[in-house]
Design a protein that fits this description.
The protein is built from 14 helices and no strands. The protein is mostly helical and 423 residues long. The protein starts with 14 loop residues before the first helix and ends in a 6-residue tail after the last helix.
């Protein structure tokens, strides 16, 4: 058998097969081959490889042992072992860790309160502290119709305020009070009540919102492929925010300058989360103060009986006074303080304006601490001074919060009813 001119055939192969082997890019007659991947396609399939660079080993992307498998193994090798084994990378384990931490702090705060009130005082104080709780939580549940915060987040904030925040506040307030009294004497007690206590308690309560928003499972990156430079974008990347803290969907706007505003749902969510956290905190604090007052009144009554005096209803004046002051006159005090922190944080997360985004969260926290300090200072002004501060400061602030809740609910209803409304 003679070979074709200018070429040599492979022994044992027909002429057509030899021609195909010599020129693999030329398809045989009557057949159609798939086109080879272009440089643009290969560059898209292989990120990080310069366009047009040949694939090493002639492997086809997607085959076993090809570049896809190499990238997977290289990515796994690049991630440190401690990060792959870190339990907070898995939502179930992170939830279990958070629940265990809250349960431990709950046991600790229960023991701390019981040591100061006694078992009977703890039971009486907890029962009396429960009475105003349904009214405050019911008001926040009405506002949550606008915010639509999930129940699991509400339960977390309630447990955080009742267990973790109160544990931190009791321990830190004790240390701060001892330090100030040791260095400032009698003036140190006033400084602790008016400055140190608001700072510690508001930071402890407001940190629940940060825990909800902090992405523990992964580190987000910006569009440029580098870690986010601004603290706001690093902690609250748009892909990691809960639904109630994401910006509202864009809708067609009329011609003219556009003003970026925070969604009513986001502002209401910050208020609800802060208020629920403060409700848990106020419950534990009321149980502590009411239990203390009941234990003191009970001891005074036993002493009076031992001295031969007849018991009367005035023996429990301290408990009644504490209940009226904390449960009837100011059940919304702590929720009002922490709601300002939630409002400022919500403004920071959603607004597109530079200065409101920078000053929203710090200003909200400072307002909460300032109002808390004024409320604590009013307790030392006597009955007339307390009523004056109550009427001139607390009542207007509470009325403003109610007006904001009504505005958020009304505007949310209008946006939902409008065509192409919000979420």
């Amino acid at each position: 058998m003679s070979s074709p001119p200018g070429g040599r055939s492979t022994p044992g192969l027909p002429v057509a097969a030899a021609a195909t082997a010599a020129d693999p890019l030329t398809p045989p007659t009557g057949h159609r081959s798939l086109p080879a991947p272009s440089a643009r396609r290969s560059g898209g399939l292989l990120p990080g490889r310069p366009p047009g660079r040949p694939v090493p080993g002639g492997r086809i992307p997607g085959q076993q042992g090809g570049p896809a498998a190499d990238r997977t193994s290289a990515g796994r090798a690049a991630v440190p072992l401690w990060r792959r084994l870190w339990p907070l990378r898995r939502p179930a384990l992170s939830s279990a860790v958070a629940a265990s931490a809250l349960a431990g702090s709950g046991v600790l705060i229960l023991r701390l309160v019981q040591r100061q009130t006694g078992t009977t005082g703890l039971l009486v104080g907890s029962g009396l502290a429960l009475l105003p709780l349904p009214f405050v939580l019911g008001s926040l549940a009405w506002l949550n119709r606008t915010a639509r915060v999930p129940v699991r987040h509400l339960l977390f904030c309630l447990a955080w305020g009742a267990c973790a925040a109160t544990t931190v506040a009791i321990l830190a307030n004790g240390w701060a009070s001892d330090f100030l009294v040791a260095h400032r004497g009698a003036r140190g007690e006033t400084l602790g009540a008016e400055f140190a206590t608001p700072l510690i308690e508001e930071v402890a309560k407001g940190s629940a919102l940060l825990v909800l928003l902090l992405p523990l499972r992964r580190r987000h990156r910006c569009e440029e492929g580098r870690p986010c430079g601004r603290w706001r974008r690093l902690l609250w990347h748009p892909g990691s925010r809960p639904a109630h803290f994401r910006p509202a969907r864009s809708r067609p706007a009329p011609a003219g300058p556009r003003r970026a505003r925070s969604a009513p749902r986001t502002l209401a969510a910050g208020t609800v989360l802060g208020g629920v956290t403060a409700c848990g905190f106020a419950f534990t604090e009321n149980a502590l103060y009411l239990g203390r007052a009941f234990t003191a009144d009970r001891q005074a009554r036993l002493d009076a009986i031992g001295l031969g005096e007849a018991p009367s209803l005035r023996d429990f004046d301290g408990t009644v006074h504490t209940f009226v002051l904390r449960a009837l006159l100011s059940p919304f005090a702590h929720p009002l303080f922490t709601a300002l922190t939630g409002l400022g944080l919500a403004l920071t997360l959603t607004t597109a304006r530079r200065w409101p985004a920078r000053l929203g969260a710090p200003l909200g926290l400072l307002l909460a601490m300032g109002l808390h300090g004024v409320w604590n200072a009013a307790a030392g002004l006597g009955t007339d001074g307390f009523l004056l501060v109550y009427g001139l400061v607390m009542v207007p602030c509470f009325a403003a919060l109610v007006c904001f809740a009504v505005w958020a609910q009304t505007r949310r209803t209008r946006q939902s009813a409008a065509p192409g409304g919000g979420r």
